[in-house]
Amino acid sequence: PLLKQWYQRRVAITAGIHVHEQWGLGHSTQLSCLAMGATGIWAGVCAEGAALGHADSTTTILNLIRLGNTKVQGQFNCQYLREAARVVTEVTTEGLTPARTPIYGDRAVDLVFGFLFSDPTAQGGFDLCKFFGLEQDIRITTMASPEMILLKLEKVFGKDEKFNLEIATSMKEQILKNAADDRKEEYNSKVGLALLFDQAGGKMTPEMAEAVEGDLKTSQHIDNLIAEIKEEWDIWDGRDGEIDDQVTFDHFYNGFMAPYFGCYRCEDSQKGLRCLDMDSDGMVDWNEFRFYLKWAGREYSEVKKKKVPTATLR
């Protein structure tokens, strides 16, 4: 109300705003103050701060750009803000940037859902990946739209007249049918995507056929490797006195990652563990791990020994 009164009276003042998080409304409060006449913000480049942190400048500036403000781009190196926020977070916390952090977290640039709210380019809106010069990773799941599936086909195999929305829609229907039939398939490797295309009634391109043929030659070998890995898994799984197809992060690191990753707390190790913990319960589930092993076996079919975990976590 006070800012509004000053604005209505055209009082020439400089009013900065500094907002700490408490109820999940920090950034909306900060943007509202700017909209009502505040002339600046006092904030760090990342959200780290006392208690729950504060409304950071990176998120605020990117929202201003998204809403049409062009002046901030002349004042700041905005394309570097994401990287700066990640670096400052890791320096101040001695840990990784939380993956779910808006704007500069790992998941902020994933395209997972086929809904308009998660695909701003479908509305002609602001494209975060394009702004930062990043390549968006399209993940094909039951939540993907036919448009996403078509983009994935063209990204993996290149443009082809066989790739259209009609076949992409059939592929989406096949994904849902597989899920309903309790068939746990992956669709993000070359082979997985090609097999889905074939199941949906598409005629595979030469590149698709070559990928599938290579998989058929090595599938038994990969299955054997996975069976050997499962034997080792059960040893680590039983260390808590119960084999329940779940292992703790530290047991998983010691059993499978230590030969390839320098230390448990290193950035690459923690990223790998987070990728495998799909339900975010702090444990690695065998079904989660096996899903990635299957994908890695398809993507890196030249593997000869038990190096599948390395390919999975690279």
What's a quick, concise take on this entry?
Helix content is 51%, strand content 4%. It is mostly helical and 314 residues long.
Structural class: mainly alpha
Mean pLDDT: 82
Largest sheet: 2 strands, parallel
**Global morphology:** globular
**N-to-C terminal Cα separation, in Å?**
53 Å
* Low-pLDDT residue intervals, each spanning 5 or more residues: 306-314
Number of DSSP E strands: 6
Radius of gyration: 24 Å
Could you give the order of the helices and strands? HEHEHHHEHEHHHHEHHEHH
Helical percentage: 40-55%
Supply the number of helical segments.
Answer: 14
Major sheet: arrangement of strands: 1-2
| Percent of sequence in beta strands | under 5%
How would you describe the overall organization of this protein?
The structure is a single chain. The protein is mainly alpha-helical and 314 residues long. 51% of the residues lie in helices and 4% in strands. It is built from 14 helices and six strands. The strands form three sheets. The protein has a two-stranded parallel ribbon with strand order 1-2. It has a two-stranded parallel sheet with strand order 3-4. Strand 3, helix 6 (128-132) and strand 4 (137-138) form a beta-alpha-beta unit. The longest helix is centred in the C-terminal third of the chain and has 32 residues, at 206-237. The N and C termini lie far apart (53 Å). Mean pLDDT is 82; it is low at 306-314.
Question: Could you name the key traits of this structure?
Answer:
two-stranded parallel ribbon, 14 helices, about 325 residues, disordered C terminus, 6 strands, mainly alpha
